[in-house]
Write a structure and sequence with these properties.
This protein has 7 helices and 10 strands. It is an alpha/beta fold. The protein has a single domain, classed as P-loop containing nucleotide triphosphate hydrolases (Rossmann fold, 3-Layer(aba) Sandwich), CATH 3.40.50.300. The protein is globular and about 45 Å long. Its EC number is 3.6.3.-. Keywords: ATP-binding, Hydrolase, Lipoprotein, Nucleotide-binding, Transport.
């Protein structure tokens, strides 16, 4: 039986911030439709790994391959297009644009991709409804609760129909109830659309939503349960 081909893979990634190593030969595979939890202590390299996999930063050594293409071989224009259309990113604090309403925040990726404004706003409204925040569409981020803002950020990440969603501590700034609502919404939508999710978390309860878990320790992938 042939081994399934990863949608996204990293091989031997190293990355340093100044003189501080963040990744030390990290390798990882993400398969189509899979929810992969990446866990580890603070400073273990989780966010740096996500940034390399999403093409936000380039590793010092090693390679990232997406859908058979090395990210390092893509021109910046194509990489930017990839991040707008086939990748979705959700950060711990959502990073919504404070001056825009929830509806306009979600419509923004579509507008940047050339979708007509009326169509973009209509689709944005549908996605807000799927995440249970349609009633807040005219509110700005500062007027929403943390859970509402994070579900809006999820709608923005998924509105373009990406193949991969990168979620960096998506519940880290939320209480347990709001965090559960956000994860339930993310997992349900990912399953429904066949979207792969790379879930960065330090929370064992959040990691349990994944199909599989890998652990980072000192910038490298370690067997689960290794602490020393």
């Amino acid at each position: 039986m042939s081994k399934p081909v990863p949608l996204l893979s990293a091989s031997g990634l190293t990355k340093a911030h100044g003189r501080t190593p963040a990744l030390r030969g990290a390798s990882i595979d993400l398969h189509p439709g899979e929810i992969l939890a990446v866990t580890g202590a603070s400073g273990s390299g989780k966010s740096t790994l996500l940034h390399c996999l999403a093409g936000i930063v380039r590793p010092d050594e090693g390679s990232v391959t997406y859908d058979g293409r090395r990210l390092a071989d893509l021109p910046e224009k194509r990489l930017s297009e990839l991040r707008r259309t086939e990748f979705g990113v959700v950060f711990q604090f959502g990073q919504l644009i404070p001056e825009l309403t929830a509806l306009d925040n979600v419509a923004l990726p579509l507008l940047l991709a050339g979708t007509a404004r009326a169509r973009a706003r209509s689709l944005a409204g549908e996605w807000l409804e799927r995440f249970g925040v349609r009633g807040q569409q005219d509110l700005r981020p500062g007027e929403m609760s943390g859970g509402q803002a994070q579900r809006t950020a999820l709608a923005r990440a998924l509105v373009t129909g990406p193949k991969v969603v990168f979620a960096d501590e998506p519940t880290g700034a939320l209480d347990s109830l709001a965090g559960e609502q956000v994860m339930t919404a993310l997992v349900h939508t990912a399953r429904e659309s066949g979207t792969a999710v790379l879930l960065i978390t330090h929370d064992a309860q959040v990691a349990a939503y994944g199909d599989r878990e890998v652990q980072l320790r000192d910038g490298a992938v370690a067997p689960l349960g290794v602490t020393a």
